[in-house]
């Protein structure tokens, strides 16, 4: 079993591998789908558009 100090040495490599496996375009679409109705509702003064944002993020 490796010592804890050796495990910390490989942590940046493992984190970089996880970041490379993420689907960044899907995450960006979900962020836009969630934030657009929230911002629009805040600008227009409609408080319930947050539910629309959550529904849009669920479809992605």
Task: Please tell me about this protein's structure.
Helix 2 (24-44) runs antiparallel to helix 3 (50-59). This protein has a domain at 23-60. The protein has helices spanning 4-21, 24-44, 50-59. It is mainly α. The termini are far apart. The model has no long low-confidence stretch (mean pLDDT 76).
Distance between the termini: 41 Å
Shape summary: elongated
Portion of residues within helices? over 70%
Identify low-pLDDT runs: none
Number of DSSP helices?
3
| Portion in beta strands | under 5%
The class by helix and strand makeup works out as mainly alpha
Question: What does the largest sheet look like?
Answer: none
Number of strands: 0
Q: What are the secondary-structure elements, in order, as H or E?
A: HHH
Rounded average pLDDT:
76
**Radius of gyration over all CA atoms, rounded:** 19 Å
Summary, kept brief:
This protein has 60 residues and is an all-alpha fold.
What are the main properties of this structure?
single chain; about 60 residues; mainly alpha
Question: Could you give the topology of this structure?
Answer:
Elements: H1 4-21, H2 24-44, H3 50-59
Helix pairs in contact: 2-3
